């Protein structure tokens, strides 16, 4: 059992966590979604997806108006009306794309802004409508690497010199301002929300991939959902009792983790 002295907040990854890796369904998590809604416990989506992809999903999940973190922490939405600025710079998406495009004289890669919806659909397996939402980017860019491994190291160095960081996603690479991360966006969100709540919030985080590790290290209780990634999810927190590794994948594992930390009738 966990510390319930403070209000709870749940933060979750989507693909492979709340949503099934293959079918994108969440049936197994539905009872918990209803319980959280009844108890007014906020559920914050923290994903590499764009805001344009997350908003309709929030509606389907019954989470409209809840805060969310999009584009791996480069976008932070507080509620239906309010956006927070998750990084110190004010690099617009178009300026970021221009900056990245200049590197195409030295390296071979294709950024999403140079692809059509049809092309993104073809390389990602997303439907055309989903590809259109995935391309509505605001603060980070996605690219397909087409150069050698050696060139990749040089590419990464050049990005770092320009204050940009590179994150590996499921299929593609994500480029974002260096001071953006899921963890940093969550810290900023918690500062804002705990000020409103008048004190500390107890957080439970759920994720299945290496890109969730910083988020899972920063919450009070971490659920590592069994995933398909070849790389393990390595956490560095010392409080091993507050980490739970699920036996099940996706929404079944999500529900299992919630059961572990919160008895269903609390
Ligand atoms: Mg995932």
Automatic annotation (TrEMBL):
A Pfam family this protein belongs to?
A: Hydrolase_3
Write down the superkingdom of origin: Bacteria
Gene3D superfamilies for the chain: HAD superfamily/HAD-like, Putative mannosyl-3-phosphoglycerate phosphatase, domain 2
Any transmembrane segments, and where? none
- GO molecular-function terms, A-Z: mannosyl-3-phosphoglycerate phosphatase activity
Question: Can you say what this protein is called?
Answer: Mannosyl-3-phosphoglycerate phosphatase-related protein
What InterPro entries does the record point to?
A: HAD-like_sf, HAD-SF-IIB-MPGP, HAD-SF_hydro_IIB, HAD_sf
Q: Which organism is it from?
A: Candidatus Pantoea multigeneris
Q: What is its EC number?
A: 3.1.3.70
What top-level class of enzyme does the UniProt entry assign? hydrolase
Q: Which UniProt keywords apply?
A: Hydrolase, Magnesium, Metal-binding
The residues forming the signal peptide are: none
